[in-house]
Amino acid sequence: MKLRVLWVGKSRDPWVKDALSDYAGRIRRYSPLELIDIRDEKGAEAEEMRRRECERLEKQIPSGATLILLDERGEQLDSPGLAAFIGKQRDAGSSDLVFVIGGAYGFSDEFRRRGKLLALSRMTFTHQMVRVFLLEQIYRAFTILNGEPYHH
User: Fold this and answer.
1) Nearest to 140, CA basis, from 96, 84, 101
2) Which of 32, 79, 86, 120 has the fewest Cβ atoms within 10 angstroms?
3) Is 11 in contact with 101 (CB distance < 8 Å)?
4) How confident is the model at residue 151, as a pLDDT?
5) Residue 138 to residues 53, 54, 114, 128, Cα–Cα distance (Å)
6) Do residues 66 and 97 make contact, with C-beta atoms less than 8 angstroms apart?
7) Could you count the other beta carbons within 10 Å of the beta carbon of residue 24?
């Protein structure tokens, strides 16, 4: 199973880039991983920005991929729950598992209906931090699936 993580906007802060690189390297021990920046939209109304960003995201999603959208209204899973979800997708033979972090105004309603909604927390975090949190949780999920001591 190949993992793909899409996010709108660039990772700017050096500490974020370092953390993403670290966790991406860890995840790649278990599964192929692609991290993809999608250009953010500027200078339009929120609805139009969402629509344009979601069009760009759509182009990066392989046909037949399982799509997980990070959304504050999504389901909250604990770490073993995320591991179980990823393991189920892997065991079912899913070829592509795609996690998506939207832009400042989130996803269009149409795009939101396409995937499973997942919330990391009910709290609000910067998009930069969410990227790191998501990769850390994916790495943690793989260590749980492999019975490794990282999660305790």
Assistant:
1) 84
2) 32
3) no
4) 74
5) 24, 23, 21, 16
6) yes
7) 17
Per-residue b or e along 97-110, where b marks 16 or more CB atoms closer than 10 Å to that residue's CB: bbbbbbbebbbbee
- H-only helix segments in the chain: 14-27, 46-58, 79-91, 109-112, 127-145
Q: How confident is the model at residue 43 (pLDDT cuts 50, 70, 90)?
A: confident
Domain boundaries, the chain: 2-145
Provide the pLDDT for residue 152. 72
Q: For residues 66, 69, 73 and 79, what is the CA-based torsion angle, rounded to 10 degrees?
A: 80
| DSSP character at residue 92 | T
For 83-131, how does the pLDDT look when each residue is reduced to its tens digit (9 = 90+)? 999 999 999 999 999 999 999 999 999 999 999 999 999 898 999 999 9
